[in-house]
Amino acid sequence: MDLEVDGILVAAHELKTPLAVLRQLALSFEGANDGDEYIRSEMVKVSERAIRQVNDLTKIRRLEDGLFVMEPVSVRSVCDEVSMELKHLFGYNNRNLSIKYSNRAPLVTANRDLLISVIYNFLSNAIRYSGEGTRAELTVRDSHDKVRVAVRDYGPALPFNLWKEIKSGSIEKPTSVAMRPGSSGLGLYIASKFSRYMNADVGAIRHRDGTSFYVELPISRQASLFV
Amino acid sequence: MIFVIDDDRVMAECMVRACGGEVKVFSDAISAIGAISDGLLPDLIFLDILLDGPDGFTFLNELASYVDTAKIPVVIVSSLDYAKMDLSEYGVVGFLSKEKMIPKEIRDYAKKYAG
Predict the structure, then answer these.
(1) What are phi and psi of B92, to 5 degrees?
(2) What is the pLDDT of residue B59?
(3) Which of A63, A83, A100 is the last residue of a domain?
């Protein structure tokens, strides 16, 4: 593993405790008035998102140990869970999320936690980069012998060099994305690492008015027979 | 009485606020064991695992070694995931994730075992 990346992962591990303490502190202010309650609830949500990202980073170190079990996973239930969790954030940022399921194969071979993180990162990116008042689209459909989960945003188009890097299937480091201010490329890096572990492919489609990021997961054919 | 054993002072304070009632805080396992040896028997213990000095598992082992302490209910409070481990023979009655727990869960344990 790249030393610089390894350093980031060690630092992430150290951040877990203070973030958990911050969240707990915010939760301790129970019985606040309406205005304070809003601030308290935002503090909890912000720290929970930070904890999630830190946890994702610490998981990257554990990928090498192969500790994440691959099993039949229902794509729709994962998408439902993640979109439900982020629904508030879409609303708060004045964005809409449309969801369309057209996959016939219900189960894929994946690790549920890792897949949740991949879709969470795609959707978080869409919130950040879709313009105010616009929407993001989450679609799930069959794609040959795989199921494709795609998130389409209406933000700046993806730079060609990054698109090529994603297409080649290897993102070795978080790289900030020019034309997408504030981007560290961390979400995409995490999604790429987790997808590779699950034998899934990450890809991106450049649109004139945005980008679609997708992950294609192998269908779990035998388990699907019993659904 | 409830014991909170956690080396993070602020986290311990949050636990105290959530518990209500009489709570004693210890930042390490040795001082908690010392208090028990002095005759202070808690109704419930909230225990962090990664502590300065002996860890939470050493503490659990010590508790399980004596008849009068073996049955003290313990709730593990940690950032690491021990939820799938069966530690009931050490008196562990529950697990709380530091990253996900809410005050009500802490309070529910406090009411159930020390209310």
Answers:
(1) -75, 120
(2) 95
(3) A63
Domain boundaries, position A40: 3-63
Continuous H helices in B1-115:
9-19, 29-37, 56-64, 67-70, 103-114
User: What ipTM was estimated for this complex?
Assistant: 0.79
Does residue A136 contact residue A124 with C-beta atoms inside 8 Å? no
DSSP type of residue B38: T
Tell which of B98, B104, B106, B107 to mutate to test the A interface (max A CBs under 10 Å). Answer: B98
Residues 6+ apart with CB under 8 A from B21: B1, B2, B110, B114, B115
Q: At what angle do helices A186-197 and A34-63 cross, to 10 degrees?
A: 50
Q: Are A174 and A185 in contact (CB under 8 A)?
A: yes
Q: Which of A44, A63, A82 is the last residue of a domain?
A: A63
Contacting B with CB below 8 Å, chain A residues are 16-17, 19-21, 23-25, 27-28, 30, 48, 51, 55
Pairing of strands A135-143, A146-153: antiparallel
H helices, E strands: number in chain A: 7, 7
Per-residue model confidence as pLDDT tens digits over A42-61:
888 889 888 988 888 888 87
Half-sphere exposure of B100 (CA within 13 A, CB side): 9
pTM of the model: 0.76
If phi > 0 it is left, if psi is from -120 to 50 it is alpha, else beta; for residue A210 that is left
Q: What is the CATH number of the domain that holds A207?
A: 3.30.565.10
